[in-house]
Amino acid sequence: MPRNFSLVTVASGAVSLRSLEHGETFHPVVGPMAEARALHVAGSRIVERAGECARPFVIWDVGLGAAANAVAVIEALSEARCPAHVELHSFDCTAAPLTFALGHADELGYLAPWREAVVQLLASGRAAAGNVDWHFHRCDFREFVCAPRAGVPLPDAILYDPYSPESNRSMWTLEHFTRLRERLDPARPCTLTNYSRSTSIRVTLMLAGFHVGLGGATGEKDQTTVAATHRDLLAHPLGAEWLGRVARSTRGAPLRESRTPGPVSSEDLAALRARI
User: Which domain, by its residues, includes 62?
Assistant: First the structure.
């Protein structure tokens, strides 16, 4: 059993995991399922969009962790009796949090009904869960973006949930998001949901080539972030008022690999203005 995690009870009373190595609680305040459903399932309109898709609807689950986001997708599709064929591709460089969570499935609650699927996923890298074909890719997602594996289709939705920029900076940089955006299929509209409300992260996503909008509230956050390859996928796209706040911010610059965020440059501000 991995020892780098512990069980914690969050403010809502739900049980979640805490990474002792990174000092971060998974899905804090409201708990795993409430956050996963509000942030990712609703934020990307998974059930609606999958139901309208004539081909397999593909989801990239970046940061499998303890599988709360994946389970939220599986359960939402099952509850809606959505007939769509969905491929769910989960990425993580380690299975340690999911292995720990599996050993505490009853305490966590949400994982218990899917225990057999998780066991199979960990053993073989693939499992059937309802009408979802679930895959686990144990790899560094940054390396995958640079050299995609054969047989992994491009996504319609990305559930982006790595550790925070404070402890996992390289997963949030302009260089990484630009490479990710370039990999996506222009003919396949795709959303990317994430828990950040940071001005710098939103600037980073926009300069990487995404359209960026406000996501729904979760926990103590009154808003999150939704990015998309197509502007019409956004319910609340960022506009001129937000751009004004970026110009005034002391940390409005994008997160680059070699620089600490400060005020946005005139060149970056002009590039942002062209995308609003």
Answer: 31-275
Cα 221-218-185 angle, rounded to 5 deg: 105
CB 127 within 8 A of CB 117: yes
Residue 21 inside a domain? The answer is no
The pLDDT tens digits for 137-150 are 999 999 999 998 88
User: 31-49, pLDDT tens digit by residue?
Assistant: 999 999 999 999 999 999 9
Count of domains in the chain?
1
Helices (H), the chain: 32-36, 46-52, 68-79, 96-103, 105-108, 115-124, 141-146, 174-183, 199-207, 240-248, 266-275
Cβ atoms of 18 and 37 closer than 8 Å: no
Distance CA(11)–CA(128), nearest Å, equals: 33
- Among 110, 117, 138, which residue's Cα sits nearest to residue 41? 110
The answer to the question of residue 102 being in a domain is yes
- Does 15 reside within a domain? no
- HSE-CB at 104 with a 13 A cutoff on CA atoms is 20
- CATH number for the domain spanning 152: value is 3.40.50.150
Q: Which of 189, 179, 237 is nearest to 209 (CA)?
A: 179
